[in-house]
Amino acid sequence: MRIDVLTLFPEWFAGPLDASLLGRARDRGLVSVEPHDLRDWATDRHRTVDEPPYGGGAGMVLKPEPFFAAVEGLYGAVEARPRTIVLTPRGRLLDQALVAGFARERALLLLCGRYEGIDERVHEGLAHDEVSIGDYVLAGGEVAAAVLIEAVTRLLPGVMGNEESASDESFAEGLLEYPQYTRPLELRGMRVPEVLRSGDHGAVARWRRERAEARTRAVRPDLWAIRDGPDAPDGDGPASPRDHGD
User: Fold this and answer.
1) Fold type of domain 2-154
2) pLDDT tens figures, 63-79
3) 137 is in an annotated binding site
């Protein structure tokens, strides 16, 4: 997969892109992530990419021309751009189902805002998706872009050492993950549940399912409400993720 990022601070990505799983995936050629400086497509000697907003108000707004010029410079034409995502607090909340849809793409283009945001014509003329990572405001879209890149990269074939890990963790079935234990058997009066040492794989699976459901009900009632709603599947099988149209 190829992921391009348009940002005012391409140097910000040096650490996150080089570390751990993501760094190894890049080294192995499983994903290519290239941050691009939006100022490279400014047309004046000061490399100006922002202007005061029409109608007044505090702060500055990122101009539309550099974004369109960057897309044309990278892909030859606006119409040739890959799935393009603006990281913005007003966007759809990023969840595992949406991440899975992005992971099926051959390429992504991420647009990082700054200041008071991006001219609306970029949203209208370039963006296929608007995505938020939570109900709070960051200084810019770079942190959100890094979150999306890591979440997507983990799902690419060959990236994770154990391919079952991606399907056996929080949100994969609309549930939070069950508790995990390792050695020692006892620590400061806290013991590993006996069922996990029983060797009964069916009992272990039932215990894990029960604990995942209990944790989801207690910690994320919003997720549980989706699973327990009128569209939830019949029986004891895993619920399907919400349909995002991906």
Assistant:
1) Alpha/beta knot (3.40.1280)
2) 999 999 999 999 999 99
3) yes
